[in-house]
Specification:
With about 210 residues, the chain is mainly β. It has two domains: about 10-85, Elongation Factor Tu (Ef-tu), domain 3, CATH 2.40.30; about 105-205, Elongation Factor Tu (Ef-tu), domain 3 (Beta Barrel). The protein contains five helices and 13 strands. The protein has helices at about 30-35, 65-70, 160-165, 185-190, 200-205; strands spanning about 10-15, 20-25, 40-45, 45-55, 55-60, 80-85, 105-115, 115-120, 135-140, 140-145, 150, 155-160, 175-180. The strands form two sheets. The protein has a seven-stranded antiparallel β-sheet with strand order 10-9-13-7-8-12-11. A hairpin with a 2-residue loop joins strand 9 and strand 10 (about 140-145). The longest helix has 7 residues, at about 185-190. The two termini are about 15 Å apart. The model has no long low-confidence stretch (mean pLDDT about 90).
C-alpha cells in the first residue's frame, strides 16, 4: 500500500522492451537508499517490484501493466514520481493507494487561473460513479482532492508544493496520466476492486 505522497522524482535511464515484459531503469538516489530487492515501489503510481539494484533501480514491468498505464510511454530522460511502500506504523498523510491503476486518462487542461493551477482530466464511461467531489484520487501516484466533477472530466487544483515536488507541473494537454480512484469510493459505488486489497485487510491494518 502507498499514500500518494511522492518522496522523490526519478529520471528514466533505460527502457528495454522485450516480448513478455519491459525492463525499466530509474536514477533515484533516495529511493535506492531506502529500497531492497523485492521491495514494492510506486512508479507514477504503479506498484512495481525492485528486480535489480545498483547505481540505478530496475524493475521488470509485465505487458498487462504497460498496456493499462502510461509506463509504456516512458523514454530515456523522462521524470517519474516515486514512493516507497507504506510501513506499519507510518502516518497516512495522503490517502490509501493500492498502486493498481484503473487506467490512463488524458489531460484536458493544466493552466493557471484566478483560483491557482487547474488540472482537468478526461473521463471514460467506465469511470461513472468513481469520481467523488472533494474525495481523493491518485494522479501519477500523487494524492489529490477532486474539486469538481463533470460528465466528461474532473477538475483538481494544484498547490505550489505539489507543483514543485512532483512531475505534474510539466504535464501538458494531451499527455496521459495514471489514475487510481479512491478505494473507499469504489466500495461506496459497489464496484469490484483488486483482490489484493480487501475490506478485511483494511480492517486488519486499522485503516477502517
Amino acid at each position: 500500500m502507498f499514500t500518494g505522497i511522492i518522496r522523490e522524482i526519478g529520471k528514466v535511464k533505460g527502457v528495454r522492451r522485450k516480448d513478455a515484459f519491459t525492463e525499466l531503469d530509474i536514477y533515484c538516489p533516495k529511493t535506492i537508499e531506502s529500497s531492497g530487492l523485492g521491495d514494492s515501489v510506486a512508479v507514477n503510481g504503479v506498484c512495481l517490484t525492485v528486480s535489480r539494484k545498483g547505481d540505478l533501480l530496475s524493475f521488470d514491468v509485465v505487458s498487462n501493466t504497460t498496456r493499462k498505464t502510461n509506463l509504456k510511454r516512458l523514454k530515456n530522460g523522462d521524470l517519474v514520481n516515486l514512493e516507497n511502500a507504506l510501513k506499519m506504523g507510518q502516518d497516512i498523510s495522503g490517502h490509501i493507494v493500492s498502486g493498481h491503476i484503473d487506467g490512463e486518462r488524458k489531460i484536458r487542461k493544466n493552466l493557471k487561473n484566478t483560483s491557482g493551477q487547474v488540472l482537468e482530466i478526461g473521463k471514460l464511461e467506465e469511470d461513472l460513479g468513481l469520481v467523488v467531489p472533494r474525495g481523493s484520487v491518485a494522479i501519477d501516484g500523487v494524492s489529490l482532492t477532486v474539486a469538481e466533477d463533470f460528465k466528461d472530466f474532473f477538475r483538481i487544483f494544484l498547490i505550489p508544493y505539489t507543483l514543485k515536488d512532483t512531475t505534474l507541473a510539466g504535464k501538458r494537454p494531451g499527455n496521459y496520466v495514471n489514475v487510481e480512484y479512491d478505494v473507499m469510493g469504489k466500495y461506496a459505488a459497489g464496484r469490484n476492486i483488486s483482490s489484493s486489497l480487501t475490506r478485511e485487510k483494511l480492517k486488519e491494518n486499522g485503516f477502517i
